[in-house]
Request: fold
Amino acid sequence: MRIDKRRGRFLLGKEIAVIAALFASSCATFASTVGAASSAKPVNATPPTISGTAEEGKTLTASRGTWNNSPTDYDYQWRRCASDGFSCVSIDGATNLTYTLKSADVGHTLRFRVIAKHADGQTAALSAPSAVVQKAPVTTTTTTTTTTTAPHPAVNHRPSIRILAVRFIGIRVYTRMRVCDDSHRRLSIIERDSRGRSALLHPSLPDAVSSEPMLDMTRTWVPAPRFRHR
Reply:
């Protein structure tokens, strides 16, 4: 049996060429895959959102949303838009997650823009517009003035005595009387006859004193001889 050396050499060379071609194809595929993975920019999975009351003086809070492909940095920007949410312009200095609404925002809507970055690129995403910003309500301060009128000075009315009952026992007279006087001063009781002659009470008897504006009192004394009961 003879072996054709030339044919063997031909077959061996053909196998080596096929193996080399397969190796080159695998390397190209691997390089293409690695290149595609390293050049993938951030992708926004859920958009940014805004929460809070759209009213002058109130503070809005933003969320940057969620992102794929692992961003390493984010830029934030609040934008003032028309009432329909379009024609937006960036607000100077408004680059945080919170923003306090100003008078210039009244009648407008706000949107929040996020730019996600890493070494292979960056991607921007924009929130839906907020509600139209309203003007802050006007605070009304009511001042109540209370006027106090001082009471009029007390008027001392003329004192009066009303005899309720009179009884003579011997030479003494027993009297029950009603004294009306708002001055709380001591009173002197004067006896007067039909001719106009008068005499004070016996000096050893106490005068009538009223501790209240009207008070019933009982008093007894010995009247002057001309006033004694006959």
